[in-house]
Amino acid sequence: MSDPIMYDMHMHTPLCKHAQDLPVDYAAHALSQGLKGITFTCHNPMPNRFSHHVRMEMEQWDEYLRIVREAQDEYKGRLDVQIGLECDYYPGYEDFVQGQTKWIDFDYILGSIHPHLGEYRKDFWQEEPIDNVKKYFDLLAESAELGCFDCLAHPDLIKNMLVKFWDLDAFMPIIKESLDRIAETGVAMELNTSGIYKSLSEMNPSIDMLAEMNKRNIPVVIGSDSHISTRVADLFPDALNALETAGYENISYFKQHERHDIKITDARNSLTK
User: What pLDDT shows up at residue 2?
Assistant: First the structure.
């Protein structure tokens, strides 16, 4: 095993109401997996009680900073513990989210679209699967074009809402059009290993979509989307293999919104076997 160089760029805290364990616990497991760093990306507080049951409340903001800083202090010199945010992109909330990304000096901002939320189902869900795919991937491109996200989280999440109807070949022209727009922005996209545990059991995105991203030189960041500490770096060797199959040679991580690239071969050698 070589020196640690990899980061897990997506994980949560109990403040989102559907995760467990404190940041110090996530940090402990990260060390055992041979990581160089981790980035907390708890779900952003939103106004008007927008999906408030799956995100921290406004008044919990200071608590979020406190518990992450506790992990930073405890693991200083051993693990790079970063603070970020996973922000929902949702039409009508653009100004709020853009301002929120400047609340503190974040290391990293993930943009995400969650089509399973009640608000999304009410405002955007349609009868025809292809219309839902078109809407989701149009919003995904819009989120990149907003200009305040470093990376887009779990970028084919819609497939878990359409398991019985998911036909990647049929939907690929829609996906390619979205990826063309995203590539123009320079925003990275995430390979989220937690997709293995969702309704359609494969990472988000699939290898075929990764290959299309690679054709457009879209950088990829790996995240476990951990909601429990023992899932930090979960399935990272499989993720690296998937990226190589899709044609990637490098993966990326962010510090202070600056992207850093590392070779997949070096990343694999750095992980605890």
Answer: 81
The structural domain count of the chain equals: 1
Instruction: Please state the pTM of the whole predicted model.
Output: 0.97
103 lies in some domain: yes
Q: State the Cα–Cα distance between residues 82 and 258, nearest whole angstrom.
A: 13
2 within some domain:
no
Q: Are 154 and 191 in contact (CB under 8 A)?
A: no
Cis peptide before 115 (omega within 30 of 0): no
Q: Considering the domain boundaries, does residue 39 fall inside one?
A: yes
Task: Encode burial over 252-267: b for 16+ CB neighbours within 10 A, e otherwise.
Answer: bbbeeeeeeebebeeb
Q: Is residue 1 included in any domain, yes or no?
A: no
Distance (Å, rounded) from C-alpha 23 to C-alpha 27?
6
The Cα 270–Cα 23 span in angstroms is 22
- The size of the chain, in residues, is 273
Yes or no: say if 31 and 255 are a contact pair by the CB < 8 Å rule.
no
**Helix 23-32 and helix 61-74: axis angle, to 10°?**
40
The helix/strand/coil state of 253 is strand
CATH of the domain at 39: 3.20.20.140
| Residue 176 structural domain | 7-270
**Residue 1: which pLDDT band, with cuts at 50, 70 and 90?**
low
pLDDT tens track for 165-193: 999 999 999 999 999 999 999 999 999 99
Burial of residue 161 (CB within 10 Å: 0-12, 13-18, 19+) is: buried
Please check whether residue 90 is in contact with residue 119, taking contact to mean a CB–CB distance below 8 angstroms: yes
